[in-house]
Amino acid sequence: MRKINIGDLVARKSYNCDILFKVTEIINQSGRGTVYILKGVNMRIMVDAPGEDLVLQTDGEVKGFERRNRNAVMKTMGGITGHGRKKAGKRGIKKAFLYRNEKPFGRPGKILHLDGDKDYLEMCMDAYREMGLAVEGKYMPENQQPQEVGKMLKTYLPDILVLTGHDSVNKGRDIHDINNYRNSKYYAAATREARKFEPSYDDLVIFAGACQSHFEAILEAGANYASSPKRVLIHALDPVFVCQKVACTNVDTIVPVQELLSKTITGIEGIGGLQTRGKYREGMPGPDGTMG
Hints:
Layout: E1 9-12, E2 21-29, E3 33-40, E4 46-50, E5 54-56, H1 59-81, H2 89-98, E6 105-107, E7 111-115, H3 118-130, E8 135-139, H4 145-156, E9 160-164, H5 184-197, E10 205-208, H6 215-221, E11 225-226, H7 238-247, E12 254-255, H8 257-262, E13 272-273, E14 276-277, E15 281-283
């Protein structure tokens, strides 16, 4: 087997090669040998592993991972948009109204997405645009989010805020202690800062957390939705699917929590939350002056 280099795509033998990773760093540690820092390609996870646990993935194996991920994403998007449509957001909602012979106009909720990973942020932004949603995305390391979120909220005045990136819980440690998590304390602190800006859960909807995050602490800090109830990994696009459901649900409607969770890839083990009003606002008359 050839030498493993930065940028290579690998999987871990000890986990039955269940997740596709990219090698982001190689550390030569005295007495411990070489340690490889890995980032999930589609799952929000960063781990370290010894070289003997890694398997370089062939082009065929990578395509298999990509196919399974694409199928999961398209299945979720199909469930969101309905009627087999791949578009959502304004266009999907407008079509839904036209099916009822009505012609209002409207505005989905505006989203601000702060992400501690540039690659995941780009992936999410592509998905938001595919759905036709109004969004501002900013790369922001997790430990900077508590200090910067207030300024970002004042600048962009979003309806929905996403605070995400990477996280993990130390294996074998007390999962109820937030200090045993890599970034949960930053998500909780940033959520508290956001609630100083807007205390109302209906006026500012907050999703916070990443893989294995301290779900209860983040909800207690003021989030509407958080990860991860069962301390599992979440898909990079799960925050997007939560936002889409909230942004495109009428403001008169409470988003059914169970229905929202069914629209994510990870589901109820990875995402949870509270009853929350939708952020879509209808208007009349329509652009052509009609009243429906």
